[in-house]
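FORM 12-B: Structure-to-Sequence Request
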């Protein structure tokens, strides 16, 4: 009976697999669920679909608390309390561990059962197992960064018994060890295979696990005190990623460019299946038609977006870039200036950006604008990267700098693409460790707006950098690096304790 319950839960997961562009090969029955290769393959697609369900959580956890957002918006702004790091025992975000443990059951069920399923190709079986080990590592790594100490479970749910479900929080060092163990298992199962599953970057890959390894070992080395051995592991993992490149920005964004050679792993969105979460970073025609961009061009003009359609159809304008962000990206020699469309009440032209300019109204995030469909509405079906090669390049720079090595080659690779013909005026020259670190952080700031990186970057930098960069957080509130958990969670599980620093 216990096995029957688990099969039922797994089948629910599989039916969500229709949201990806590959379908389960046949209808499945409860009987002998884990006995066939087709069932395992369908469950694998279901894991990928369920992983995408958390993409918005990965983004908000990784960026909203940083210094990127909090500026003017046309409509009522979203997430201001979180932007201001207003966190307490009564203001709890992502309650119930952001529901990650429901997904963790599906992952653990898969990893427990698939090794026993006969496959025509052992390499195929190892590949999908390697993918799911990588995904479990990424989920635990996210929970570690968010809460520090979290419960660890690597077995599927075998009975619905509230007492047996209770688990204490494991120390963050043990959680990191679990992350590292899953990364190692993923790489072992991938072996020498660098192929993308079905040739698509919407499935986890060896390169994704290596990018995650670099990311996690940088965190372990800096935040958890692992030091030089961890930085060396990060450097070696990142340097071993091959087959990807930095592509021109005009070949990087939009639905037509989703198979670009920079995206290592991306969440898949498609019409009639699922849309991404960037509508709140755009806005409505009725709000923008009276406005002008920074060059004085009417928002009604098709050239504002450059895609043959005026302004933005659909969406809302509830997240505005901070003044710091607008100033950071206020250089027209930098292709990343076009991350935003800045909108003003008059056509006088407003470059460079002036913080005191009361004609400035709002901005539109252009990176994930979506496309206009037959109904005349702009829809958000862009795939969203979790890791792209620019991330790898700048994490490699970070690893080198932490090892007191020269990171200029990596920083300049990013600047070469950003500044094009003007690159020589922006060439980076190696300095001391502190100035290098600041340069890397600034490049990452400009490069990854809207991609869920900045908050994690500031924490991972260590040495109190996060408190220097954020006005909303100071060193006396260092405990707020990790989220509180809810009183309901504590009441329901007597083995849980509140996150250190928040009291009872």
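FORM 12-B RESPONSE
SEQUENCE OUT:
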């Amino acid at each position: 009976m216990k096995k029957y319950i688990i099969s039922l839960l797994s089948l629910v997961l599989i039916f969500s697999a229709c949201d990806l562009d590959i379908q389960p090969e046949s209808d499945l029955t409860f009987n002998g669920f884990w006995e066939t290769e087709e069932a395992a393959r369908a469950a694998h697609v279901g894991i990928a679909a369920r992983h995408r369900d958390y993409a918005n959580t990965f983004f908000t956890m990784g960026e909203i608390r940083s210094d990127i957002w909090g500026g003017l918006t046309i409509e009522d702004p979203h997430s201001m309390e979180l932007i201001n790091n207003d966190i307490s025992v009564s203001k709890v975000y992502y309650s119930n561990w952001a529901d990650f443990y429901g997904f963790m059951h599906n992952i653990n069920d898969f990893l427990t059962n698939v090794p026993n399923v006969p496959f025509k190709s052992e390499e195929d079986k190892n590949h999908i197992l390697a993918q799911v080990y990588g995904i479990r590592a990424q989920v635990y790594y996210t929970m570690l960064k968010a809460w520090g100490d979290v419960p660890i479970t690597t077995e599927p749910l075998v009975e619905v018994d509230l007492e047996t479900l209770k688990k204490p929080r494991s120390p963050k060092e043990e959680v990191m060890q679990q992350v590292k163990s899953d990364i190692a298992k993923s790489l072992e199962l991938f072996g020498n295979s660098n192929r993308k599953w079905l040739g698509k970057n919407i499935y986890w890959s060896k390169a994704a696990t290596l990018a995650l390894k670099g990311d996690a070992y940088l965190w372990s080395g800096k935040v958890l005190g692992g030091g030089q051995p961890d930085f060396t592991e990060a450097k070696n993992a990142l340097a071993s990623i091959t087959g990807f490149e930095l592509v021109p920005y005009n070949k990087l964004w939009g639905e037509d460019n989703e198979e670009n050679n920079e995206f290592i792993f991306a969440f898949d969105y498609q019409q009639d299946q699922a849309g991404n979460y960037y509508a709140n970073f755009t806005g409505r025609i009725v709000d923008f038609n009276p406005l002008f961009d920074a060059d004085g061009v009417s928002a009604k003009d098709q050239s504002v977006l450059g895609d043959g359609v005026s302004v933005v159809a659909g969406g809302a304008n509830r997240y505005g870039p901070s003044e710091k962000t607008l100033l950071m990206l206020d250089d027209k020699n930098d292709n990343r200036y076009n991350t935003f469309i800045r909108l003003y009440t008059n056509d006088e032209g407003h470059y460079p950006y002036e913080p005191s300019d009361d004609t400035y109204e709002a901005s539109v995030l252009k990176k994930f604008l979506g496309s206009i469909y037959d109904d005349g509405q702009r829809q958000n079906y862009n795939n969203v990267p979790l890791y792209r090669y620019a991330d790898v390049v700048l994490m490699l720079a970070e690893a080198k700098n932490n090892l007191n090595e020269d990171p200029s080659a990596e920083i300049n690779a990013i600047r070469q693409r950003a500044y094009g013909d003007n690159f020589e005026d922006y060439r980076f020259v190696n300095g001391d460790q502190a100035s290098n670190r600041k340069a890397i952080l600034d490049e990452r700031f400009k490069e990854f707006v809207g991609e869920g990186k900045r908050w994690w970057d500031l924490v991972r930098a260590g040495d109190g950098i996060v408190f220097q960069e954020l006005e909303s957080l100071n060193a006396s509130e260092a405990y707020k690096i990790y989220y509180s958990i809810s009183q309901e969670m504590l009441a329901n599980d007597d083995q849980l304790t509140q996150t250190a620093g928040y009291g009872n």
